[in-house]
Amino acid sequence: MDNTFRHFYGNQRAVRLLSAAIDRGQLSHAYLLAGPPGSGKKTFARAVAGKMFCIESCGKCQHCRLLGKDIHPDFRVFASQGFVRLELAREFKTFIQIPPSDAPQKIAVLENCHRLTTEAANSLLNILEDPPDHVVCFLTAESPEAVLPTILSRSQLVQLSPLPEAKIVQHLLDNGVEKGRAEILAACSGGLLGQALEMNEREDFFPTRQQWAETVVEILKGETDPLKAAEKWNEDVEQVLEFLTAWFRDLQLMSLTPDYVAVNRDLACQLEAASMLCPGERAFDILKHCVRARERMLANCNVRLVLDSLMLRMWKD
Ligand SMILES: [Zn+2]
To answer: Which residues surround ligand 1, an ion (CB under 5 A)?
Structure first.
């Protein structure tokens, strides 16, 4: 595969679509990059910019160097916490309207378009319908279903999917991560390379998981108040949900398959204790609620309420 897109082994379709369009000089004006957090949407847009600005992606020229440092004047990411409001949409439009300073075309990335306010979305309609020739827009979203139809219809959908676990392990090994650690990171990443890399950077990743596992066991025993735990976990809710989903899937599969190798194999003691307290059927029930909680979070439900109700399900029956 083209070195430019080396992080996207599992997404051949998206890579082929974009590389062919770049080679032919026929990129669309606007793409909607859809994929879960950590699937590499921003990295993908940056890779497209890299190939457009320097077809070899040589890594040495001015374009490559500026892009590598995230300071290329013709590539910009517009990001916000929570909703994407009118003000940010306006900044995005202003950037688009000014011709590129050095590169043949500009790339503008607007993140979290599943959280556009109606006002912001309306203000983008004209520019997405008929943007200046010198720009390619990348809108990102966690899922296309969550994007307003008016925005969706004005962009070409590019879906980024999770990668096979073995590919993530290989990538981590190539980056000098030790094998056992790489396997656990990959198993916990949900197929998202970005997430695996981020977890690898976090020094507290393994100790934190151990604490979470111990707390889950205490809740199952009825020794810890589930709402207090939820309060503590509120900050890391996405990672906690990822963890709990893998944890209860482990418990369910352990009860079905004797030689099953758990995702959380480094937490074997805690898993063993949990399996005594939470038989397969109950684990499956909680697992379903974990999956449902993640869906509700994607749909922008109140995070705290979602977590509270999930934690109460774990409480000793
Ligand atoms: Zn270059």
So the answer is: 54, 58, 61, 64
